[in-house]
Write a structure and sequence with these properties.
Strand content: 15-25%
Number of strands: 9
Number of helices: 15
Bound molecules: (2S)-2-hydroxybutanedioic acid
Distance between the termini: 52 Å
Oligomer: single chain
Shape: globular
Order of helices and strands: HEHEHEHHHEEHEHEHEHHHEHHH
Helix content: 40-55%
Length: 328
């Protein structure tokens, strides 16, 4: 173990999140960047670990490393290709180096809610996207939901003009950069683990994220308030390396795949509840939430939607039409 990995292991062991693996068991490392409670990904990853460790005892053992303790999202896919980690669930905005198909999920106001996202992902087009990186060595095993994104800054954001001139942290996505440029704001790609500090010190003025991330990272503490825009979606791809996956014994692969699918279905069905609880937790902790009336919301739609045109070729008009058909 490297010093960093050993430190991470110790840190995670203190929270009880890492299971002790027995001699002879295949170790499956799952690395992610969020907190573990009141968080869709944190809860799903821990449930996956519990089930693998109970049902595949003696064969396989999963260790979950949350909170960027092992890798950031910009490192984890390389680490996976090197065989240093076997599973992760980065947001769909984090695959730019590998594929452009997921850009559809970043386009603002493309999906009206998480049910629409779910239906699109379940369609043939959505299922095929999970294979889109196979020749680059990465395979999607399922989509995990988080929720719709909200917008916050160190000043009130009521209309699109309020964002002009501000710096916003973005995930490393060309679509998200273009979205903030459309607001005459300045996008700053940054790792998730660095956002709180950057907001606190004024390196950036604002950010966009879901309620569970805003709550989990306490962004509301260092922002003026959060505007409930629901302007985009943040969802995850459970991803593994094709080499590792193809190298598993067939029975092991099938059992693991079944567990992943069952955990995916169970936790995705519960995501609205986790999202609502995180939103309420922000309120309870004193975070200010600004709701938009219809006219205000339409102004954000009008300001952001022109971004679609820039990415139609990447995502395919037929996929945009399919997504819009689901919204209707
Ligand atoms: C972000 O970087 O804001 C998110 O992708 C973090 C996460 O995993 O939810």
């Amino acid at each position: 173990l490297s010093t960093a990995a050993a430190a991470a292991l110790l840190a995670v062991s203190a929270t009880g999140a890492v299971a002790a693996c027995d001699e002879g068991e295949m170790v499956i490392k799952f690395s992610h960047v969020t907190n573990t409670d009141r968080h869709p990904k944190g809860i799903a990853a821990n449930l996956l670990m519990e089930r693998v460790n109970a049902e595949m005892d003696g064969t396989a053992c999963m260790e979950v490393y949350p909170n960027s303790t092992l890798y950031n999202d910009d490192q984890v896919l390389e680490a996976m290709l090197n065989g240093d980690v076997q599973m992760a669930a980065p947001s769909l905005s984090k695959f730019e180096q590998f594929t452009k198909v997921f850009r559809i999920f970043d386009l603002p106001f493309m999906f009206k809610n998480i049910e629409a996202v779910d239906a699109f992902q379940a369609s043939d087009a959505g299922q095929e996207m999970m294979q889109s990186m196979a020749r680059r060595g990465l395979l999607g095993l399922g989509y995990w939901h988080n929720g719709m994104k909200q917008l916050s800054a160190n000043k009130p954001l009521n209309e699109p003009g309020d964002a002009a001139g501000l710096k916003f942290r973005v995930q490393p996505s060309e679509v998200l950069k273009a979205q903030f440029e459309a607001l005459d704001a300045s996008p700053q790609p940054m790792a998730f683990s660095e956002v709180y500090g950057a907001l606190q010190t004024g390196v950036v003025d604002g950010q966009e994220n879901t309620w569970s991330n805003i709550y989990g990272q306490k962004f509301f503490e260092v922002q003026d308030g959060t505007t409930e825009t629901n302007h985009g979606v943040l969802d995850y791809l459970v991803v593994t390396s094709t080499d590792w996956w193809d190298g598993l014994d067939e029975g092991v692969r099938e059992q693991l795949n079944t567990i992943v699918t069952e955990v995916t279905n169970e936790r995705n069905a519960a995501v609205a509840e986790v999202d609502a609880e995180a939103r309420q937790a922000v309120v309870d902790a004193g975070g200010e939430i600004r709701e938009l009336d219809d006219a205000q919301r339409q102004a954000w739609v009008d300001a952001m939607m022109p971004v679609w045109e820039q990415f139609t070729d990447d995502v395919g008009q037929e996929n945009i039409d399919a997504a819009q058909g689901i919204n209707a």
